[in-house]
Amino acid sequence: MLASGVFAVAGTLGTSGLRLWLAALLLLAIARPRMHRLDSRAWSGILLYGAAMAAMNVLLYSALERIPLGLAVTLEFLGPLAVASLGAKGPIDRFLPLLTLAGVAATAGVQSEVDEAGVLFGLGAAVAFGTYTLMAGRVGQDSAGVQGLALSVGVAALLLSPFSLPAVPKLESADWAAVLISALLGVALAYTLDFLATKLTSPRVVGTLFAVDPAAAAVVGALALNQKLSVSAAAGIGLVIASGAAIIWRSGRTATAPPGDVQP
User: How far apart are CA 130 and CA 135, in angstroms?
Assistant: First the structure.
């Protein structure tokens, strides 16, 4: 991570909060949301979306302090996997998310010793990630452009203020540069792409695509960090790609099917 060197100074949660603050300021300046035009439904979605963002950061980092990265990411992915399973209409559609989970588990590997608190934090991160995936679609429907996203990131930044504000005096100019780049790429750009992808497709498809994250991490580790990529991990990456592509294809096929045409 670009801001990983700041963790020792500001802490993981403090760094995450600062990234959210900088990303929120940027998105708010670009979107210029007209808050007075948002109704109570839109505001409830924005608040839930922002709370999910904040919870994802707190719970995932708490899990990573106790359990390995592969296991933590696999547990967190259970959230979007549950979203991907919503609305499944046939046996094939119900089976494909399970195939994706098998691929993610194979990529992460089997852990012999597990910290129970770490697992609980990972499962909590899964709930937050699933909520994040669902609320992206709702906020996208209730607000124009990225206005709702900008406000949601602002909500997340406010919720993490108890961690981020005490870290501000500790950072030097080089630290701020790292946090700014991380905020632009890891928060503003990443969250915007998630948001737009959900508007263009569906939370189910986007939830499945999040499975690419642990697979991509395994590939980067093998190529850039000389970490060994086992046969099971390679097979898992293949399962993730194949099942994700199948869900996207079947989702588009169902959407374009004539009324009354029943898909298998």
Answer: 9
